[in-house]
Amino acid sequence: MRHRTTDFVSTAVALAGVLLYLFPIYWMISSGFKTQAEIFADPPTFFPAAATLESFRYVIHRENIARYLFNSVIIAAPVMILTVTLSAMGAYAMNRLHSRMVDIGLVVVLILQVFPEALLATPVFIIFKSLNLLNTFTAVVLAASARAVAFGMIVLRPMFRQVPIELEEASAVDGCTRMQTFFRIVLPLMRVPLIVVAAITFAQAYGQFVYPLALLNKQEMQPGTVGIFGFIGAEIADWHRVMAFATIFVAPILLLFLLLQRQIVTGLTSGALK
Amino acid sequence: MDRSSILLRAFLLIPVTYVVCLIGMPIAYNLLASVQEVNLGNIGTLNRPFVGLDNFQAALQDPVFRQVVRNSAVFVFVNVLFQVGIGTIVAASFAGDFPGSATLRGLLLAAWILPALVVGTIWKWMFASQNGVVNFLLVKLGIASGPVHWLSDPGLSMSALNIAHVWFGMPFSMILIAAALASVPNELYEAAAIDGAGPLRRFRYITIPAIAPTLLAVACLVTIASLRAFDVVLALTRGGPVNSTNVLPLLSYDTSFQEFDFGRGAAIGTFAFVIVIAVALIYVRSVRTEQVS
Which CATH architecture has domain A70-273? Predict the structure, then answer.
């Protein structure tokens, strides 16, 4: 009996700790529901006293949040598709190819993915300027997907090791080519890791800020991150509106995370350290 | 060579080439641009005046650059110390296998999955001098007597940035450390317990040595992630006040995109690249050692 009590206490303490840690997320959401008067009230209220959707209405109707979200998705979706496709190919080859190329490829990818975007922004801007690609979503997608592909390969490589080679040999005996085996046997087996990479890549590209800021200067093309940034330009911002905007903006990401939390944790630990 | 291995080679080369073209080439291009004079007028052409090391000299002579290098060093050091330190403590406290421990631990990653720009924005609101919830709590708890100017006092702004960034990155470090903790064989603990070692001694003499390679790898990852920090800084403080939170990526970006001196922006980038590469090599080595052991 005593064991159960300590278990219960541990769980309660841990739950309290996690909720406390995630307080900033709660503060973002609850601030979005407050009126302007309540935002500037002293002392601040922990629950909105008169919860209102006013700020949400404002950012939907006056700030055109739909367009910002649409642009974020326009950037994130192709990045996700490119990343899943290319990194699945690479991760599979890294496990099946017995050649020094694999080692070299892995080290090249590991090293290149560490370079900060804000530093790459300068040469990427100059290159895309000379290719006449500034102010196109293509430029942002290409720039943002590069690191995502590297990350995808690093996460998927240890995962693809788990595909039993016997299955592939059986498929070859049945007359399937390597390409058919890849699509019919390997990819279906790897669907959970592929979904994890797709989810993380989507979240990161959806929150991409440096490249749109550097490569797009038309406001109607800007994604949500740049929209929020424009919103907090002044020293004192309309925090209830900014937080309403941020809440709507991150809602899809948080939902995706809650759905796939367990798989994301497994995927991350396998990739970064193996 | 049979068709199947040609296909495998293509499968490897296509993504690797993709990454090399979109990251490797810009790095090479950056090296070139950092010894050229690049401005808005000649940006479209490769044929630009060669200026030798002038851009580097201009950067090095700038007192702001020296301050920014110091800021970056402090920022990286504090993040490594606290993300790895707090991450180890949190991971160890979740290691008890009580009901829901894995789910609760995983929930912390909600902070890490947020767009960095949003993290900076939320903390800017929480750190606001007037009506900010941080100041309210500090006064309420009797730690501060009046509003603390987190973001407008150059002596405090770096602390505010560090708090926000450690909050953002710690869950990821913690998850990696937790995985390492789970892989320490239980027999080691049992043997030590029989020998009379208490929990603290077991942690010090069994856990820490067993997870040391992971801690090094995580320290490298935190260094790399902190050298990358841009969105959080720009949203929270824009590098200010008076450059007190300005870091290398932000200085490089501003030099290129605010002052339109792309050559000097590239030179600052090259300087940072050297540091990043050095850390990356340690990381790759540490990951490989761990694989062998």
Answer: Orthogonal Bundle (1.10)
